[in-house]
Specification:
This protein is mainly alpha-helical. It has two domains: 177 residues, Fic-like fold, CATH 1.10.3290; 240 residues, Fido-like domain (Fic-like fold), CATH 1.10.3290.10. It is 59% helix and 5% strand. The protein has 21 helices and six strands. The strands form three sheets. A two-stranded antiparallel sheet has the order 1-2. A two-stranded antiparallel sheet has the order 3-4. A two-stranded antiparallel sheet has the order 5-6. Helix 8 packs across helix 11. The chain starts with 6 loop residues before the first helix and ends with a helix.
């Protein structure tokens, strides 16, 4: 028998469901976090009363309830804008999506737009007819909902609320699937992928519930841990029924990079430059205490705006291309006007660095096999000469652009022109060159953050441009693009 949920139980359930999404800030730019918090507060004020009046006393789920639930997640007057096949679709919250996801190239079973209503009614009626519901029934409804994908946005949020409420109503432990999505994306993809490949297997839902329970109890087997960690390009492709280049072919990667965003107007370049800066510096900002973050949030945002404007003016929109002065200017601007910075030198000695000025003492990179020894870089007196050679080589575009970008980053790392922050500048330049050439950046800094050991191993194993040594870097780019593509695709679920 269903349990009558009071307002307090409903409110606590919704708060627990939605809190992980807000807390991570996933897919919400840093400068829009305040708006996200306001939207969360608004939802927490409206949803409990609506759910109590229209759900708690009912023995069945209704299509109208689901649509209103979606509508209440958005401020009044909001339009959900989705770009598909060269067209912008302006969707109203609470209404079914206005476009088909399926194309001739993509073979995925999301319901066609004209069938959304009938498909939703069909599997919801089947669910309502189950007299004695089990956890497996609630989980099956979750998968059926994602299969139809009825809304233009926030599908995963809506079904997660419904799923947790149904668990509470029928006396089950909530599975907290939205929490899993934000806490461990690879495991979330793993069990969705496992279901898609075994959905006709008897007892598959019980298997997945055990996996979910093991995850929450931190008892995942080593086999599952190893398998979920392997989920990158291929599984993302099969799960979301999209064709992502799996072979690390330079031409395929180039075309894919161009397709990630089909309209590279000036505003999009500025937005992407800002995102590159954000990805590099935001993790360092998050190492500060919550008090410092709140106090310095405005300064951080202003700093990102100043740095973005400098890059747009001095490089992206400058016909002269990348210059030594531009590189020095970027280094100077990342310090926001500070004139002297105390840094640790090679050998862990302290010295004061002037932002924008090249090194005056030899420096190097710690070896992975022995952190107390160094791979010494270009001597200070040779820095300008080596940088000029590097920048001159960028004008020779007869080779694949990704090879040029990787070689720029690695050569810049070997030169190590500044006393500090050479890695940040090198990663930044790699993505900025792609943006300037109308290609979507692959956000090298994000890859480094997620794969730090592997990233440094790739750098130290590189042997000055041999094709064999380039393969791991092409893999890095393809893997990063797959992750970016998945985030754009996952945005339709969240």
């Amino acid at each position: 028998m269903p349990i009558l949920l009071d307002r307090e139980a409903i409110q606590s359930t919704i708060h627990k469901t939605l809190a992980p999404k807000l807390g991570t800030g996933v897919l919400t730019p840093f400068w829009e976090q305040d708006n996200a918090r306001k939207a969360f507060k608004n939802a927490m004020e409206l949803l409990p009363d609506y759910i109590y009046k229209n759900y708690s006393k009912s023995d069945t789920l209704t299509i109208g309830f689901i649509q209103w639930l979606h509508r209440l997640l958005y401020p009044e007057g909001t339009k959900v804008v989705i770009y598909r096949d060269g067209i912008y679709h302006y969707n109203t919250p609470g209404e079914w999506r206005l476009y088909n996801d399926k194309t001739e190239e993509d073979n995925h079973p999301h319901s066609e737009q004209i069938n959304i209503e009938s498909d939703m009614i069909a599997f919801t009626c089947d669910y309502n007819l189950i007299e004695t519901k089990k956890r497996t029934d609630v989980l099956q409804y979750y998968f059926d909902f994602l299969r139809v994908h009825p809304f233009a946005d926030s599908n995963l949020t809506v079904i997660s609320i419904i799923h947790d409420l149904e668990c509470k109503k029928y006396g089950f432990e909530t599975m907290d699937l939205l929490q899993i999505r934000f806490e461990d994306r690879k495991f979330y993809l793993y069990f969705l992928y496992y279901y898609e490949n075994n959905k006709n297997k008897m007892g598959i839902l019980d298997e997945i519930i055990k996996l979910i329970d093991d995850f929450h109890n931190k008892k995942l087997s080593q086999k599952v841990i190893d398998e979920k960690d392997k989920i990158i390009i291929k599984t993302t492709t099969e799960l979301f029924w999209k064709k992502i280049p799996l072979v690390f072919d330079q031409k395929d990667i180039l075309e894919f990079g161009k397709k990630l965003h089909p309209h590279f107007e000036k505003e999009w370049k500025q937005y992407l430059v800002r995102q590159v800066m954000q990805n590099i510096f935001h993790p360092y900002f998050l190492t500060k205490s919550q008090e410092v973050q709140e106090k310095c949030r405005g300064q951080f945002e202003q700093h990102m705006e100043i740095l973005t404007k400098y890059v747009m003016d001095e490089y992206i929109n400058n016909p002269d291309g990348l210059t030594i002065e531009c590189i020095r200017g970027i280094h100077k601007n990342i310090y926001g006007g500070l004139t002297k910075i105390k840094v640790k030198t090679t050998g862990w000695e302290e010295e004061y660095m002037t932002p924008g000025e090249f090194k005056t003492k030899p420096n190097g990179i710690s070896r992975l096999d022995n952190p107390w020894t160094y791979l010494f870089c270009t001597p200070p007196e040779k820095v300008v000469e080596e940088l000029q050679k590097l920048l001159s080589s960028l004008h020779e575009w007869n080779e694949n652009i990704y090879k040029k970008v990787i070689q720029l980053f690695l050569t810049f790392t070997e030169i190590h022109p500044f006393p500090d922050d050479n890695g940040k500048i090198g990663m930044m330049l790699a993505d900025l060159i792609l943006i300037k050439n109308d290609i979507y950046p692959f956000f090298m800094s994000s890859f480094k953050l997620a794969n730090k050991q592997r990233f440094y191993e790739m750098i130290q194993e590189y042997s000055h441009g041999s094709e064999k040594d380039m393969v791991p870097f092409y893999a890095m780019i393809a893997e990063s693009y797959a992750s970016l593509y998945e985030q754009k695709w996952m945005a339709d679920f969240l």
